[in-house]
Specification:
Elements (H helix, E strand, L loop, with lengths): L4 E4 L6 H12 L3 H15 L5 E6 L5 E9 L5 H12 L9 E9 L8 H10 L6 E7 L4 H8 L3 E7 L8 E7 L16
Parallel strand pairs: 4-5
Antiparallel strand pairs: 1-2, 2-3, 3-4, 5-7, 6-7
């Protein structure tokens, strides 16, 4: 197994490399990548935005995560807020660190890299909780999020231009580690 190093990453100059990882991991076409490029660069300009990269022995980016403190004025928040409010969970939009993207190349999945990326970035958050959205269905990503302590806050959530429904998930920080049981107050 190739040694993978997790380290802070200045994602802006590596945006095309990161989007190549996302395109493979998430099945994006060239048009979608071009749109997401602008979105990623805009996010990275927000106060508190930061990223971690997973680098192979050759220095190649094989995975990445980035996020930022949530702002109710951001597009994502404006879309998910009615869904969260309907379920009494819209308070999660305040004082939360949003995991905006987390992707690992398929050949590097199932090695704990995604777990190391997300726990690494949330361990540096000053917010008491984290939120994210994930495709609403059983998947390795959703299992990972649940193992880390995330629970469903709203589902199904429909984003404009997304063909599939999503789930919004939230977890208190710090995230759970392997073998660590969720405290009683963390259980739904």
């Amino acid at each position: 197994m190739e040694n993978v190093v997790i380290a802070p990453c200045d994602l802006a100059p590596r945006v095309d490399e990161a989007l190549a990882v996302q395109a493979v991991a998430f099945g994006l076409g060239p048009d979608e990548v071009a749109i997401r490029r602008q979105i990623v660069l805009r996010h990275l300009g927000c106060t508190g935005a930061r990223a971690l990269g997973a680098f192979g022995a050759d220095g190649r980016l094989v995975g990445f995560v980035y996020g930022l403190p949530n702002d109710r004025g951001h597009w994502w928040s404006s879309i998910v807020q009615p869904y969260l409010r309907e379920r009494g969970n819209d308070g999660w939009l305040d004082d939360s660190f949003v995991i905006t993207e987390l992707h690992v190349l398929p050949d590097f999945q199932q090695r704990g890299i995604g777990r190391r990326l997300i726990t690494g970035i949330t361990d540096t958050a000053t917010e008491p909780r984290s939120i994210l959205s994930a495709i609403d269905g059983e998947s390795p990503a959703r299992r990972l999020y649940r193992d880390l302590g995330y629970r469903d806050l709203a589902r199904p959530v429909h984003f404009p231009s997304a063909g599939r429904p999503y789930a919004v998930m939230g977890a208190p920080l710090p995230l759970l580690r392997p073998g660590q049981a969720a405290p009683a107050e963390r259980v739904e």
